[in-house]
Write a structure and sequence with these properties.
A two-stranded antiparallel sheet has the order 1-2. The chain is 76% helix and 5% strand. The chain has one domain (18-229): Heme Oxygenase, Chain A, CATH 1.20.910.10. By secondary structure, the chain is mainly alpha-helical. The chain has eleven helices and two strands.
């Protein structure tokens, strides 16, 4: 656990950071993600390819908005180092992830026409709407907290799955993307940013940040279910 260390009258006290609190509260949702049939079958190679294709098409909608939100949050942030990271996220911070996605679309023959004919599914729509809500009705702090599970959960999934991998080449490449040094570095930076923003926030704002994180974790869990069921309106 990452802790903040304070010294009070000669006694060193360790205190959990806000991201520790976030992860602790979201733990049941994360464990459900790790144990979801979509993830289990992706790892064993038993996941039907049509379900993975559906996931990729919905994730494309999500990632477009995820990238846009980085820039919109950066516009409202004063700290220059945070702005730099977020603007990089808006313009291609995780190029390796995007490159892999492009290869996946080519391998699976997902065409622009097919993408246009596939509407955003309810959970993807709700997840994106939640993130915009956290920025425009909430604050940049809450919006950053809402973005964090997409980094952190996927990085943890990559680290958990990499040892066994997957016998299906495209699933193995998916796993490797999220265990990569580049993605791990981006994840750690985003965790630090949220901790920094949380440290300077008022208690009510800190609670709202934790809530935003937990809600995003809920939508992450249901993203697997959305793809597994090929959810429609």
């Amino acid at each position: 656990m990452t802790v903040k260390i304070r010294q009070l009258k000669g006694v060193i006290v360790t205190m959990p950071t806000i991201t520790d609190q976030m992860k602790q509260q979201a733990e049941p949702l994360w464990q459900a993600s790790f144990n979801h049939p979509f993830i289990k079958e992706l790892s064993t190679g038993q996941l039907p390819m049509e379900e993975f294709r559906y996931y990729l098409k919905q994730d494309r909608y999500y990632l477009q908005n995820f990238s846009t939100l980085h820039g919109k949050i950066a516009d409202q942030i004063k700290d220059q180092s945070i702005k730099k990271f977020l603007y990089a996220g808006a313009t291609g911070l995780n190029d390796s992830e995007k490159d892999v996605r492009t290869e996946f679309f080519q391998q699976l023959a997902i065409t622009p026409a097919e993408i246009r004919q596939t509407p955003m599914a309810p959970n993807a729509y709700n997840y994106v709407s939640h993130m915009y809500h956290e920025l425009y009705v909430g604050s940049p702090r809450r919006a950053c907290a809402a973005l964090l599970p997409c980094y952190w959960l996927y990085n943890d999934l990559g680290k958990q799955l990499i040892n066994n991998g997957s016998p299906v080449k495209i699933y193995q490449e998916f796993i490797e993307t999220y265990d990569s040094p580049e993605f791990t570095e981006a994840t750690n930076t985003m965790i630090s940013i949220v901790d920094q923003l949380g440290e300077s926030a008022e208690p009510d704002e800190q609670k709202a940040m934790v809530t935003a994180f937990v809600r995003s974790s809920y939508y992450e869990l249901h993203f697997w279910e959305m793809a597994y069921e090929e959810q429609k309106w």
